[in-house]
Amino acid sequence: MSSTPFPTGPIRSCRGRTVAVVGDDIDTDRIIPARFLKCVSFEGLAAGAFADDRAELAGRHPFDRPEHQGAVLLVVNRNFGCGSSREHAPQALMRWGIRAVIGESFSEIFFGNCLAMGIPCLGLGHDEAKALQAFVAAHPEQELELDLEALELRASGGEAGAAGGEAPFWTLQLAEGPHRMLVSGQWDGTGQLVAHDSELRTTAGRLPYLAGFPA
Amino acid sequence: MSAGTLYDKVWELHKVAQLPGGSTQLFIGLHLIHEVTSPQAFAALSDLGLGVRHPERTVATVDHIVPTTSQARPFADPLAEEMLSTLERNCSEHGITLHGLGSGRQGIVHVIAPELGLTQPGMTVACGDSHTSTHGAFGAIAFGIGTSQVRDVLASQSLAMNKLKVRRILVNGSLANGVAAKDLILHVIRVLGVKGGVGYAYEFAGPAIAALSMEERMTLCNMAIEGGARCGYVNPDTTTFAYLQGRPHAPCGEAWERAVAWWSSLTSGPEAVFDDEVLFDAGTIAPTVTWGITPGQGIGIDEMVPTPEQLDPEERPIAQEAYRYMDLQPGSPIAGVPVDVCFIGSCTNGRLSDLRAAAAVARGRQVAAGLKAFVVPGSEQVAAAAEAEGLDAIFRSAGFEWREPGCSMCLAMNPDRLEGRQISASSSNRNFKGRQGSASGRTLLMSPAMVAAAAIAGHVTDVRTLLDTPSTPSSR
Ligand code: SF4
What we know:
The complex is a heterodimer. Chain A is built from eight helices and eight strands; from the N terminus they run ββααβαβαβαβββααα. Chain A has helices at about 30, 50-55, 90-95, 110-115, 125-140, 175-185, 190-195, 195-205, and strands at about 15, 20, 75, 100-105, 120-125, 145, 150-155, 170.
């Protein structure tokens, strides 16, 4: 479990070990089974991360393997986080230690939940994702460096040489809006929304259902 | 880019501001909350020193954690009790209406808002629950949100959103006898895939959709999210207006006429432009059952579990996982697969017409020996209406249990759950691994009438064979 503080302010980079969870359509019921949702606070959710998959694999799940302890980057495949809107899923991942998720694609609600917590979800192509997962499997202790401003992921120093010559390097995708929000630190948007109260009143004023459909 | 669709019109009307990140601040007309995804949002709100901006546009109920046997307080499960009492405290502190147990209006959030007339055409609806897409049945733009966004809506009655593309799902023809809206949506997801709708709102249109009742449209839109589409909707029409008229929160008197005029003005016109369009023929759809671990893994009742060769190469890894987990053989028929538990309920299929369809199958028949079958009405109003017409008695005498309203074994946060490797026939919406409360439990999704048929037969079976041969005509 992580000692890294939860995200605050601008998110520009992230460095550390990586853990890969392989498979398409990994739903939020698998990321955190419903029984862990019986709580009124997100504290303590780390234990629920992938709980049933981990139990089934009896210690062989990536989240249990010693070489991935302390990982801050998670690599996944397609449609990660589909299903339920439960923010408990990214909360469980964050509380386990994850600070960024890199994958082929994400469900929209999961992506939005992560964004609201300052956890970037970054895209990369199918073959690149496979290559990255293979790299992580081969070099589990290698620290990777995520440069969120440049949208690049690279293995630098340490074992990178052992990976053979050139340090591996991946280009990542992130839509412009969320990218700007994260690097500028404006991802925690409640303040911005509250600040537009007069605009909010204007909008409310043109919605007839708010006034009982006046003549 | 879409233009002139209901989605575009409602989006434009609800715009508040452009946000620095590039997204749009959107006014939320109706905010629904429940006990699972709201406590942390209220806590965050008080950390920020903020109040609820529009408590009168926020409505609460309790559904996910409530027991369906005895609902006496305090609940036997102290965690469930703590969640409900936290919701009660938050609602009373902030002046939010809570439709609590025994109020006559409690139930699954996506069942009660429509039946109270809270959900109306042209609204934006948000709820910390992915099946908020249900409310699109009324021509509302309705989507599920996470807890941070629940906090945002509480604080500002608005959300930062990015506009979706719009895909029209045009359904021609008409559904055959014994084929339900559930079969239609399972078929659509089977064809378009569970990722097919990512980035889209689904507009369901065409003669087959126009012919659906409001409850059927809710079933359809409910599962848009299972196809990856964050919202699905149907343009409002006379069916919509007839459903709404006279409901507690619906406009009345002269306001009613003005409301109908406004609602009608929002529909996608003939000039509407869609980003994409897909055609279906309703007449070709059979009762559909899932065999795997995603809602896209569905097949017609007469079909075989697909072999890897029959599947797109990209679908094969998850199919392999599904064969193993479900213990079903590729190439084997789905009909005849024995089931242990039959569950009729949920926000997909826990409404009065669903219970009627299931009761029509159960009437005068008996649940197979050794099988557990239970019916959980979607709300207190549904329960009362069903009891008033004797559906509870039909179910009970057939050997089904008749329970109190709630989400129940749709996600098994209450005591209703599968045990071990049990396999269920379920009218709910998700067949994910472990969804129904056992880490190795298995789920076959199908329509409520098909669940009732499975309960009678003891295995998956084509409900149409039971509809053709009424068992005891005198039992009515
Ligand atoms: S019935 Fe199931 S899907 Fe619907 S709100 Fe409840 S738990 Fe969610």
